[in-house]
Amino acid sequence: METIVLDIGETLVRDDRHWASWADWLGVPPHTLGALVGAAVAQGREATDALRILRPDMDVEEAYRARAAAGRGEHLDESDLYQDVRPALAELRAAGIRVVVAGNGTVRAGELLRALDLPADLVVTSGEWGVRKPEPEFFARVTEVAGAAPEATLYVGDHPADDLFPAAAAGLRTAHLRRGPYGHWWAGHPDVVETADFRIDALTELVGLVASASSSASAASVASGVAPEAQGETGVRRGVLRSVRQVY
Question: pTM for the whole thing?
């Protein structure tokens, strides 16, 4: 494994500030919006559908711009990062792994993330690329910036439909992170269990996975007489992805 690419929301960054700020903007208690987000997650819908339940005619993009114009736009600081982010990313880089952060987010989110000076080789958002997950074009861009073959690149994320399934369809190895509403709710779904190469509860587990995968690849090459880099799709990867679909 040469490159690890990480999702942003509920992988690196906690979303509680995000939803609390929307609740404040809409004038509803945070727990009300939180409950609606949870209902959307359980139904396999987009989390932003919770906003449209409260305001059926809402244009989310327009509302985002209005918040920014009112001085109540996006904010991100060290307190928004999960505690395992810096140690995990630092250990990966120390182990010689290329670390890329690439997930859905605005141009402003990309600026805020880079200002945190994370131990990563590249930080980029969908807003900067002009294409969002789960579109195949997003993962084509991931493959381009990874600097490694798809089978030597691991995509890590919490959302099955946005992260896991499309990344696997693009030929990347995948790790499903049991974190955040989507990560917890869908962790035991058969499609998630079948599709994910790895299932983890913390980013700090990635360092051990890298070492384990390298050892397995070396052992497999010795047993087969084939160099690890020549194994490709028939090496230590799991089976072919059964299906790529929304989980509802």
Answer: 0.85
